[in-house]
Design brief:
Blueprint lengths: L2 H6 L10 H5 L7 H6 L11 H14 L6 H16 L3 H13 L5 H14 L5 H12 L2 H9 L5 H12 L10 H14 L6 E4 L6 H10 L8 H7 L4 E8 L2 E14 L6 H5 L13 E9 L10 H15 L5 E4 L6 H14 L3 H11 L6 H8 L10 H15 L10 H8 L3 E6 L6 H7 L3 E5 L5 H9 L7 H6 L2
Parallel strand pairs: 4-5
Antiparallel strand pairs: 1-2, 2-3, 3-4, 6-7
Helix pairs in contact: 4-5, 4-6, 6-11, 7-8, 9-11, 16-18
């Protein structure tokens, strides 16, 4: 036993040579126990005294006797103090918010019993109001007052972003996270958001955020971002009035005369600027959410609808609205289902594939190895044809839990688009090859059939074009 271990031992504690005893981690103390204690244990965040002081500061924020302005000032002071805390200390603040500002269980029970007793009577309306009020937690009031000050929304968004990875390991934080998501879904409803175009003439600080937040195709340089904001392109974002310089989500659009089959021409900085007077097609080639703390708050579908309306008004000749999208989950899915796909081949296809792979009988490892050289495969290659059929199945039939297996497909199909076309070598970048062997897909937004496509999806059928339907057979 080393000297450091001895120094940490309490008076009267006996040393032991057992490795298991020395390495045993003491059970985590509850918040109540820690707040009633005098000393902090090794590994804990805030000291008992600091915990009590933090709770008092949070309670002062929700004091019903003060004005909203004063509450906002107090909340801002807490946020400033919080900014200087380390990870363990911040977790303690989350626990305080979650546990010490929960709704009163006894009041909820009494209100529910009263509601159940008069639910069909003349007092039902009053009983419902009483129950609703009982269900409102002091935690909601606390978070609302943090949002009063100018940086309040930013503080809460960042807090939730930092909190999310800890939910699986600590169920005590679930209530706080759920409260934040509920409030955000109201505060960031699309009815309160502004659609703004981001152009080369926008403030440099905004363009820098575009570069930082781009999540689909990395922006490599200022020349790259200038190309994406040129006259034959459009970029739109949703902004909240309280965060005017911060896009919540943005979409990049290319105005062309056909449905694009590859990302390289669209990102080519040296390519000539297109003639927007001849543009008939709008290609959505990148959609990026910028705020991790707003995960689960949906406004992407509304963004596309608003952008389609805006583009149609500016360019009446635009008739086709489609995406050029990655297939980020395809490689992983193929690795799990390659054996199943090979077993489903008829004898002719199995023989052709075996010959192409140089084996007697194709195995999953052989297929995955050959797929690594996807860009070198000829059009008639059995490996290439199998990859295309597999991708068509992945996008057009895989619906675990009633939703598309691929996250990008889930988004666009949920918005009413259909799977239109697969594009071989659509993204030959290292990222594209890693995700989907270079394959990309077009989702078509047929404005007259969006509701029909959603209805099909609700029935467990993915809306697809004839081309995709033929491939997935």
């Amino acid at each position: 036993m080393n000297s450091t271990t001895l120094l940490r031992m309490a008076p009267g504690m006996r040393a032991t040579s057992s490795a298991s005893s020395a390495d045993a981690k003491p059970a985590e103390r509850s918040l109540d126990v820690r707040m009633a204690a005098t000393l902090r244990r090794f590994g804990e965040g805030l000291s008992p005294r600091a915990l009590r002081r933090a709770l008092a500061d949070l309670q002062a924020v929700v004091d019903s006797r003060i004005s909203e302005v004063e509450a906002g000032r107090r909340a801002a002071a807490v946020a400033q103090w919080y900014a200087g805390l380390d990870a363990g200390e911040r977790r303690d603040v989350w626990l305080l918010m979650s546990e010490r500002f929960a709704p009163d269980a006894k009041k909820i029970q009494a209100a529910r019993e009263h509601y159940d007793a008069v639910v069909e009577g003349a007092e039902a309306g009053h009983a419902e109001v009483h129950l609703r009020r009982a269900l409102v937690s002091p935690r909601a009031r606390l978070l609302q007052r943090f949002a009063v000050g100018e940086p309040g929304l930013r503080f809460l968004i960042d807090l939730r972003a930092e909190l999310l990875p800890h939910l699986k390991g600590d169920s005590r934080l679930v209530a706080l996270e759920a409260e934040l998501e509920h409030l955000f879904s109201t505060w960031f409803d699309v009815a309160f958001l502004d659609l703004r175009r981001i152009s080369w003439d926008s403030p440099a600080s905004l363009i820098e955020k575009l570069i930082r937040y781009e999540a689909v195709h990395d922006i490599r340089s200022w020349a790259d971002v200038k190309n994406r904001l040129d006259s034959d392109r459009r970029c739109y974002g949703f902004f909240h009035p309280r965060m005017p310089g911060e896009p919540l989500i943005f979409v990049e659009v290319a105005l062309v005369d056909h449905i694009s089959d590859g990302i390289t021409p669209l990102l080519d900085e040296a390519a000539a600027v297109g003639d927007i007077a001849r543009a008939t097609t709008a290609i959505f080639y990148s959609i990026s959410n910028t705020q991790t703390g707003l995960r689960g708050v949906s406004f992407g579908d509304s963004l596309i609808k608003r952008v389609v309306e805006t583009l149609s008004a500016e360019f009446p000749k635009l008739k086709v609205f489609a995406t050029l999208s990655p297939i980020p989950g395809f490689r992983s899915w193929l690795g799990k289902h390659a054996g199943e796909l090979l077993d489903g081949l008829d004898e002719k296809r199995s023989t052709e594939l075996a010959r192409a792979l140089g084996v007697d009988k194709p195995a999953p490892a052989d297929l995955m190895h050959a797929a690594e050289q996807a860009l070198a495969l000829e059009a008639k290659s059995p490996v290439r044809q199998l990859l295309l059929r597999a991708a068509a199945r992945y996008l057009g039939r895989e619906l675990p839990d009633g939703q598309a297996a691929d996250p990008v497909a889930r988004f666009h199909l949920g918005n009413g688009a259909r799977v239109e076309r697969l594009n071989w070598a659509g993204d030959p970048s290292a990222k594209g090859l890693k995700q989907s062997f270079g394959l990309m897909v077009n989702y078509l937004y047929d404005l007259k059939r969006l509701d029909k496509h959603r209805a099909l999806l609700a029935q467990g059928r993915v809306p697809v074009s004839r081309e995709i339907d033929g491939l997935r057979a």
